UniProtKB/TrEMBL annotation:
Name of this protein: Ribulose-phosphate 3-epimerase
Alphabetized UniProt keyword annotations: Carbohydrate metabolism, Cobalt, Isomerase, Manganese, Metal-binding, Zinc
EC number(s) per entry: 5.1.3.1
Obligatory cofactor(s): a divalent metal cation; Mn(2+); Co(2+); Zn(2+)
Pathway field: Carbohydrate degradation
Residues reported to bind a divalent metal cation: 33, 35, 66, 175
Binding residues annotated for substrate, in chain numbering: 8, 66, 142-145, 175-177
GO molecular function: D-ribulose-phosphate 3-epimerase activity; metal ion binding
Lineage: Bacteria, Pseudomonadati, Bacteroidota, Sphingobacteriia, Sphingobacteriales
Source organism per UniProt: Pedobacter frigiditerrae
EC primary class: isomerase
Amino acid sequence: MKHIIAPSILSADFANLQRDIEMINNSDADWFHVDVMDGVFVPNISFGFPVLKAVKKYAKKPLDVHLMIVNPEKYIQEFANEGADIITVHYEACLHLHRTIQMIKAAGCKASVALNPHTAVGLLKDILADLDMVLIMSVNPGFGGQQFIPQSLNKIAELRKMANEINPNLIIEVDGGVSISNTASLIKAGANAFVAGNAIFSASNQTQMIADMKNIDVSLQEI
Ligand SMILES: O=C(CO)[C@H](O)[C@H](O)COP(=O)(O)O
């Protein structure tokens, strides 16, 4: 299966959100990545249900909702009701992660767990079989436009190795500092879904940038 490109609407122009949603609809992108931040789990506040609902109204592709919030279990059903297709909760925010994953599935969504840069992938071993996706944060969450943390490549490779034994269909998504210049090395490490905010929305031709990231020829790229 070809890798997935998920533009992060955190970097969109909120005064022209419908225009940016249509750009994604008409591009080679696969998903919309929607970052929800509460100002507690991360030092930033983004948006919540009303914006998700507005995006859902126009989006013609699945909504990949990344909850950077404490106590995410309180809001799973409402995010599902407002249109989330994939829900990612943070390992660091869940005291009862297994229960929260079951809640996401019961709400009819794909279930995913995100790991902050300091969190070891081995901690997911006993729950990996229950997951549709793991999101490796390759920056400290909270802001777009940060620099990719190189150690993330080792984490992806380690996770892919573990997934090959436990859950071969696991999607490994990378989020933070992803661009056309590191997509190939991330694919080689074992990732197959890419969130990109700044790299797409600051490009002079956004649709072309999405196409370039989607159609990158890994065999021609150096690590
Ligand atoms: O989760 C996020 C921030 O916490 C964003 O999705 C991520 O930072 C994408 O932005 P960029 O591609 O510009 O790094």
